[in-house]
Every structure is written in structure tokens, then in C-alpha cells.
């Protein structure tokens, strides 16, 4: 997202023969789901696990549910994938055939491959099945994780090719200066500008006083009401549960849900502290945008009221720099309310 108040350069198209995505400013997205399904089938279906005289084979992919997307924003590649996989396998020990399953409930970008859960089960209980179950647990899981790692590496390699377009200077035959790479990719939505340490921005009282000398801010208050087709406790969860906040912000968050606890969203661009939490009714935060003057915080109060067929959220945000008021309102709408409705199916009202 552009600096608040200055417009969004992702929608500014410079001169270029194809007139699209200059210098990779635009958010571009490719659907990687069909490719992923084909790749996972190739890597897993019929895969043979053999070691120390034992052998088991994946006979069928019983479940392959999920999706994958590859995105480019400002030249940074961002991959989202989430899969629920169930594999059927069989093996033989002492002339006795054994069958079973391997469940992989959450293969996603949120976890390293080594952390992905694989659960092994067998269809019968006897010495042969227990022997092969132990084999699949100790040996099979590691070999299957290597196949999953191959999928992730090839996903990134294949979809990187068409997402990063040559920059304007490069098209004219000139080279640009080497770009410094971030240490890691931040999976975040449009608030994210660059990788920064995920810490709440603070300043000492003395520094705050120095900043305030000769620079009096014109401050405004934002008040808005949003309606969601859900119960108050469901909306409260969306705003306070770390996994749900991660889902609608589409990125890593720091989220300490207690009075005085820090929160950091959108790659570090939004930060603050929880000041008051009333279960299913009220949330009060100190809240700042990274580009605001150092040490300056607004106060955000969100009050939930459950109606007969929906829940109302009343937001009051005080001490917003006047130049940022309208853009702040738009970004609450885009990156909070619309994203929450989209992520959790809470609906919208035409009124």
C-alpha cells in the first residue's frame, strides 16, 4: 500500500509497451491450485518408501483438498497454500499384507516442512501391522516430508518465472543496481511495505517532547458503524483470536491478548497495545500507523452489539492526523471489514 494520504502507486501505470505492472508495483496473482494438485499427485501417488528390507507404497491419494496462489507485490513473491491430504498405503511383512493411512491435515506456508503434522494409522492390529506402522512413523514420515518439500520448492520456482516482470530500465537495455534482499518473506496484505522487526513502535518521553516542538498536529476523530451477519462472539473472535487475525490480515501477526499486551499487524505497519478487553462486547487499543510521527498513537474503541439478525460494530478512533482521516477510514474498510467478511463469510448489508 502507498503511504497513507498520497494515493496508491500500484494503480499508476508508466510508459511501457504492454502498459501493465510497471516495475512490479501492481498486485498480481496466479491460481496455483490445478498445478499443485497435479504436482502433488505425481510426487505422492505410487511413492515407494523402502529401507532396511522393509517397503511400503502409497496406493492412492484418498483426499486432496485445498488451494494455492502465487502473488507478486512490489517485486516480492508471496505464496499461499493450504492442503488437507490423506494417503492410503500398503506394505508386506512376514508374507502378511498391511494397509493403512497417512493424514496430512495442514500443509501450509505457516509451517516449515519439518513441522508439518503427519499421522500414521493402520487398518488392523497385529504384529505385522504394528511393525509397518512403526516403520512408516519413523522412516515414512521423513521421506514423505521430502516429497512435500519438493512440491513447495517447485511451486516457488515455476510460478516465479512469470510473476516478476522486467523493470522499465531493464527493458531499455540498462541494468539497475542490485536490490538488497529481505532476510525473509513477509506474508501480508496491502499494508505491508517492507520487512521490519515485529515490534511495537515506541519513543521515550524526551524524544516525544523533542518531536512536538514547533509541530502541532491537527487531530481528528473517526466514527463508523459496520454490520456483520454473525453473532457477537464470532466477530469478537475474528478480532481477538490470533489464528483468525492471521487469516484476515493474510500474514504473520504479533498478538498478545491481555491488558497492556502488544499487537503488530500487516508486516509491522500497524502496531499498538490492548488497553481494555470485555468479552464479546468491547475492545480498546492504542493504535498507530508506522508512517505517523514517531511516538504518536490514536485510541481505537470497538464496541459490539448483537442484534436480532446481525451484529453491529461501532468504531471510534480519536487523535488521527487530519491529513490521514479519509484514508484511514478507507483502509479500515478495505483491510479490516471487507477482509473479515471475505475470510469468514460474515456477509454484508445493502443499506
UniProtKB/TrEMBL annotation:
<comment type="similarity">
    <text>Belongs to the AHA1 family.</text>
</comment>
<dbReference type="GO" id="GO:0001671">
    <property type="term" value="F:ATPase activator activity"/>
</dbReference>
<protein>
    <recommendedName>
        <fullName>Activator of Hsp90 ATPase AHSA1-like N-terminal domain-containing protein</fullName>
    </recommendedName>
</protein>
<dbReference type="Pfam" id="PF08327">
    <property type="entry name" value="AHSA1"/>
</dbReference>
<dbReference type="InterPro" id="IPR013538">
    <property type="entry name" value="ASHA1/2-like_C"/>
</dbReference>
<feature type="domain" description="Activator of Hsp90 ATPase AHSA1-like N-terminal">
    <location>
        <begin position="29"/>
        <end position="161"/>
    </location>
</feature>
<dbReference type="InterPro" id="IPR036338">
    <property type="entry name" value="Aha1"/>
</dbReference>
<dbReference type="InterPro" id="IPR023393">
    <property type="entry name" value="START-like_dom_sf"/>
</dbReference>
<dbReference type="GO" id="GO:0006457">
    <property type="term" value="P:protein folding"/>
</dbReference>
<dbReference type="GO" id="GO:0005829">
    <property type="term" value="C:cytosol"/>
</dbReference>
<dbReference type="Pfam" id="PF09229">
    <property type="entry name" value="Aha1_N"/>
</dbReference>
<dbReference type="InterPro" id="IPR015310">
    <property type="entry name" value="AHSA1-like_N"/>
</dbReference>
<dbReference type="GO" id="GO:0051087">
    <property type="term" value="F:protein-folding chaperone binding"/>
</dbReference>
Amino acid at each position: 500500500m502507498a503511504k497513507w494520504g498520497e494515493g496508491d502507486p500500484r494503480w499508476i501505470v508508466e510508459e511501457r509497451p504492454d502498459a501493465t505492472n510497471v516495475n512490479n508495483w501492481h498486485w498480481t496473482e496466479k491460481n496455483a491450485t490445478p498445478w499443485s494438485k497435479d504436482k502433488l499427485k505425481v510426487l505422492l501417488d505410487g511413492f515407494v518408501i523402502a529401507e532396511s528390507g522393509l517397503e511400503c507404497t502409497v496406493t492412492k491419494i484418498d483426499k486432496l483438498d485445498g488451494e494455492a496462489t502465487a502473488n507478486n507485490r512490489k517485486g516480492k513473491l508471496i505464496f499461499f497454500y493450504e492442503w488437507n491430504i490423506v494417503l492410503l498405503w500398503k506394505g508386506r511383512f512376514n508374507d502378511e499384507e498391511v494397509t493403512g493411512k497417512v493424514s496430512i491435515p495442514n500443509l501450509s506456508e505457516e509451517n516449515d516442512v519439518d513441522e508439518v503434522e503427519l499421522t500414521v494409522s493402520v487398518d488392523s492390529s497385529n504384529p505385522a501391522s504394528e511393525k509397518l506402522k512403526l516403520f512408516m512413523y519413523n522412516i515414512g514420515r521423513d521421506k514423505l516430508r521430502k516429497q512435500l518439500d519438493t512440491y513447495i520448492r517447485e511451486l516457488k520456482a515455476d510460478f516465479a518465472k512469470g510473476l516478476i516482470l522486467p523493470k522499465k530500465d531493464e527493458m531499455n537495455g540498462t541494468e539497475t543496481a542490485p536490490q538488497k534482499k529481505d532476510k525473509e518473506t513477509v506474508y501480508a496484505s496491502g499494508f505491508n511495505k517492507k520487512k521490519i522487526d515485529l515490534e511495537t513502535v515506541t519513543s521515550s518521553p524526551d524524544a516525544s517532547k523533542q518531536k512536538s516542538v514547533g509541530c502541532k498536529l491537527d487531530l481528528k476523530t473517526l466514527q463508523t458503524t459496520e454490520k456483520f451477519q454473525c453473532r457477537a462472539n464470532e466477530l469478537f473472535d475474528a478480532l481477538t483470536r490470533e489464528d483468525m487475525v492471521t487469516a484476515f490480515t493474510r500474514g504473520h501477526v504479533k498478538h498478545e491478548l491481555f491488558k497492556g499486551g502488544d499487537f503488530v499487524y500487516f508486516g509491522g505497519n500497524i502496531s499498538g497495545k490492548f488497553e481494555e478487553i470485555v468479552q464479546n462486547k468491547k475492545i480498546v487499543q492504542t493504535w498507530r500507523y508506522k508512517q505517523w510521527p514517531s511516538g504518536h498513537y490514536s485510541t481505537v474503541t470497538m464496541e459490539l452489539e448483537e442484534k436480532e439478525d446481525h451484529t453491529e460494530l461501532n468504531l471510534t478512533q480519536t487523535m488521527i492526523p487530519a491529513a490521514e482521516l479519509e484514508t484511514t477510514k478507507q483502509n479500515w474498510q478495505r483491510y479490516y471489514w471487507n477482509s473479515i467478511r471475505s475470510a469468514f463469510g460474515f456477509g454484508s448489508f445493502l443499506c
